[in-house]
Amino acid sequence: MQASTIVEIEEGSLAVVTGAADGDQPRVLRSARVPLPDLGRETLANALRALQEEALQGVDAVHVVLGERRMQHFTSQLPRTSPGDAVAYVVREAQRLCGMQSAADVMVSTRVLRRLPGGRMVLGTTALARSVFEPLQEAFTAAGIAVLGLYSMESLLALAANATDGRATAVLECNAGRARFVLCDAQSPVQVRRFLIGGAGETNPAALATQFAMELPRTFDWLRETRQPLPSSLLLGTRAGVDDDALSMLQTDELTQVERAGVPFRLATDSLPMPSLGVGMLLARLAADEPVLSLTEPPRLQLPWTGQRLVSLAAALAVGALCSWSALVDCSELMRTQVVRTELDGELAELSASLAAEGVEPAAVGQLVDDVEGRAERLRTALSTRRPVSRLLAEISNSAGKELHLEELKFTSTERILVVGIVQGRSRQEALASIAAFSERLGKLPYLVLGGEDEINEVARQRNCYRFKLGMTWRNS
User: Fold this and answer.
1) Which of 445, 451, 453 is nearest to 393 (CA)?
2) What's the average model confidence in pLDDT over 319-325?
3) 171 near 145, Cβ under 8 Å?
4) Is the distance from CB of 390 to CB of 411 less than 8 angstroms?
């Protein structure tokens, strides 16, 4: 099984945890903690060199968890927008919070927490000034260790908060003489408050519970002042060693549920130092091969699939399937045509051989074929230019009612047919109706096509009298 090594860095402490997948929970193989007075490059380099003889022996790449006050966590509510525009917005906000001038000076990771009606979305973002991490990265490089990923301690603690319905929850963890209260929204940190723990706090459960009981009301007052939602549930980390009897002591009117977070790992031996909850959550994700957003990677946003996108994808798949089916049908038809052509070529070869045996030259055969095709073409031309003139005269005369008087009929074999006449009725409506009926009867003749460009004009000084001109063409097909 492949092992993963995680280095947890915070002012005052450096921890190294190595674990690997082992059934439903990862198993911690090695765990060590050493003091770290400050986060300077030389101090970290010395600590890494000391650990390379034991905890980091044979390790050439690690994941780094950083607990740093300058780490920024915030949420953003955006209207319907593209992933690129959303990323650009959170990067600008990260620049403002970190006090940086350009996007290249900040390290950002962001993800969608939930979708809201109207296409709006809530994003959770973690940001850090690049200048904060560069000295640490130089120390790892000097020790010959590559950094596979960088994560904030708060973002990993928030992974233990399982609420995804928008309700606020909180996680409380201890490390290096400090406690870290993380307000979470859908497994993303929103606000972080740190406070010091007394000298014996981490080793004395009763003293630690007493200090928590004093600090939690202050933390809730701070949340009210900053206009943040108050959590109703609190999870205690693996290093927040409070006795079970003291859990009810931490409950208040707002904080109605206090419980321990589930330990997401197993220790190989009971003598190993207990890793923090954040490191355990990262180890569980790495063992399960689940993605975790790293600050060392460029920020990118994976938008969840909406109903409209699913419909568009279904439509695209349907069109693709239809085109594929059409291509298969066309390919099959082409193959059948090629088979028929091959058979005809074979028959032509047999006929040519038979004619050659009879003494007929191939040129004569070609000339005979040309003569047949020429006669067929001349026959089609003759049939297309044959005009039923006598029938035209008779049916135009029979189509004219008693109100119509035909004056002129012009026609040729190829040009338009023109009918000119006069109609007179007892009223204007009757006269116009007679012209319409006459035109309708002509349109029903199978060998004529009404060609438009008709003219109807009133006859001067004659009541209800119109002169009309109707145009038609011969039907050739």
Assistant:
1) 445
2) 74
3) no
4) no
The stretch 175-192 carries a mean pLDDT of: 89
Q: What's the CA gap between 242 and 212, in Å, rounded?
A: 9
Contact 179, 195 (CB under 8 A): yes
In which band, very low, low, confident or very high, does the pLDDT at 52 lie, cut at 50, 70 and 90? Answer: confident
- Please give the pLDDT value at position 12: 87
Tell me, what DSSP letter sits at residue 38? -
Give the rounded percent of residues in the chain with a pLDDT score beyond 70: 90
Q: Could you tell me which residues are beta bridge partners of residue 175?
A: 178
Percent of the chain with pLDDT over 90: 33
Mean pLDDT of the chain: 85
Rounded distance between C-alpha atoms, residue 8 and residue 180, angstroms: 15
The tokens describing 18, both together, are 């190595």
Q: What is the torsional sign of CA 376, 380, 382, 388?
A: positive
* CA separation for the pair 83, 81 (Å, rounded): 7
152, 279 Cβ separation under 8 angstroms: no
Taking Cα atoms as reference points, which of 17, 31, 118 lies closest to residue 77? 118
pTM of the entire predicted model: 0.63
| Gap between the terminal Cα atoms of the chain | 80
CA-to-CA distance for 300 and 459, rounded, in angstroms? 81
Closest to 289 in 3D by CA, of 17, 7, 18, 26: 26
What is the chain's length?
Answer: 477
Helix ranges (DSSP H) in 143-295: 153-158, 205-225, 277-287
**Token digits for 31?**
């765990």
Where does the pLDDT of residue 315 fall: very low under 50, low under 70, confident under 90, or very high at 90 and above?
low
Q: Which residue has the tokens 């007052």?
A: 221
Amino acid at site 155: S
| Strand order, beta sheet including 266-267 | 146-152, 61-67, 3-10, 13-20, 27-34, 266-267
pLDDT at 371: 66
Tokens of 105: 């000076």
Instruction: Determine the Cα angle at 407 with ends 404 and 413, to 5°.
Output: 115
Instruction: Look at residue 72 and give its three-state secondary structure.
Output: strand
- Could you tell me if 165 and 3 are in contact, meaning their C-beta atoms sit under 8 angstroms apart? no
